[in-house]
Design a protein that fits this description.
mainly beta, seven-stranded mixed sheet, 11 strands, globular
Length: 116
């Protein structure tokens, strides 16, 4: 059973930075794609960024230019570098490993709080 594990969340001031990590107990390169989602209180879970098997990335408009998704195959880890954080970025961030169009695995999430 694949179990993604997120880490790197925390409390940061507006304008600050954090780097989230999603580690997998397997070879992430074998997955079709890896996505980062977030869910703020009272809101639906939304896609933040994704990276495909081929390295193609995509971002939500709200984070373009501030967040960067990357992958280290040797470490079986996907990262989400977040800079210029805003209070509206506050949410629980989840990693989703998509093996194919039918099978995917969610992590437990890591809390990111942006507040002064």
């Amino acid at each position: 059973q694949v179990q993604p594990v997120e880490s790197g969340g925390g409390l940061v001031q507006p304008g600050g930075s954090l780097r989230l990590s999603c580690a997998a107990n397997g070879t992430i390169i074998s997955f079709k794609a890896t996505d980062w989602y977030r869910q703020a209180p009272g809101k639906q879970r939304e896609l933040v960024a994704g990276i495909t098997y081929g390295g193609t990335t995509n971002y939500a408009d709200s984070v373009k230019g501030r967040f960067t998704i990357s992958r280290d195959n040797a470490k079986n880890t996907v990262y989400l570098q977040m800079v210029s954080l805003k209070p509206e970025d506050t949410a629980v961030y989840y990693c989703l490993l998509r093996r194919n169009d039918y099978v995917a695995y969610w992590g437990q999430g890591t809390q990111v709080t942006v507040s002064s």
